[in-house]
Amino acid sequence: MNCTLKDFDNHLMNGLDFCKKAYGLFEETRRSPNGIERLRLIKGRPEKKVIEELLPIARYIQARYSHCRQIKVRWIDGKQNYDARLLFAGILVEKRLAPKRQYVEVTTAVHENDHISRRLMNEQGHTFGVKGVQKDPHTGKYVSLPHVYTNYEAQEDLAQKILERIKAKNKKEYPRRTTLIIQCFLDTLFWENEWEYAIKMVKSSGVEHRFHEIFLFDANHHYSATLYGTGRKRKKMP
Fold first, then answer.
1. Mean pLDDT over all residues of the chain?
2. Could you tell me which residues come within 8 angstroms of residue 126 by beta carbon, excluding any fewer than 6 positions away?
3. Model-level pTM greater than 0.70?
4. Which residues lie across from 218 on neighbouring strands?
């Protein structure tokens, strides 16, 4: 396959083809020398773009693509204030139930110790999770210790991280009809009802945002949710 980021950059392609190529690039990277380590540590720029942009956009496309709405995507590897542009066609667009075009911006909701936990996993082959990461006062090295979650602690942590990302992104200027995609790296095992409880906490927080919609999904399972915008005007793009 020998696919690279250049095969995506500024190329308009069918959304399902985009998904196939993104998943193919991930698998190709995983099977390459030190590929698992590079993906786990998100070591280089290509790995960062795959994990933090291409795969989240693919997840969003798969959630929206249907017989009533076909999608084309143009991912742009640059410093513009969005990650990709989407074009829509189909009966939903014809009936004006879906826009003809929109932008997407991707971000990640993740614990601040996640990168350390990933490193420990790579070095030791195991870790007790992000909240058990501590620095040993004697050696100065990070260690992973067991952490026991109580009641709704894990769900509250996730909801707080999501709200932090929404508020941070809401301070920036984005094109009209921008969808914010938030990839959530869960701190521990979540059942579906626990995911739903965390999303309920986000929705009940009263947080306001200017995005067309916010698409939330977790990185390992198939949980997802959508928050819709408040309809405030955004800066138009040419």
1. 91
2. 144
3. yes
4. 184
d(CA 49, CA 54) in angstroms, rounded, equals 6
- Mapping DSSP to helix (H, G, I), strand (E, B) and coil, where does residue 217 land? strand
- Per DSSP, the three-state class of 52 is helix
Which residues contact residue 130 at a Cβ distance below 8 angstroms, ignoring those fewer than 6 apart? 111, 112, 113, 114, 116, 117, 187
The pair of structure tokens assigned to 102 is: 């929109």
Placement of tokens 């929404």 in the chain: 166
pLDDT for residue 31 is more than 50: yes
Contact by Cβ (8 Å): 165, 182: yes
- The tokens 């309920």 sit on which residue? 200
Q: Parallel, antiparallel, or unpaired: how do β-strands 178-184 and 101-109 relate?
A: parallel
How far apart, in whole angstroms, are the C-alpha atoms of residue 111 and residue 133?
11
Query: 207: Cβ–Cβ under 8 A, 6 or more apart, which residues?
Result: 163, 166, 167
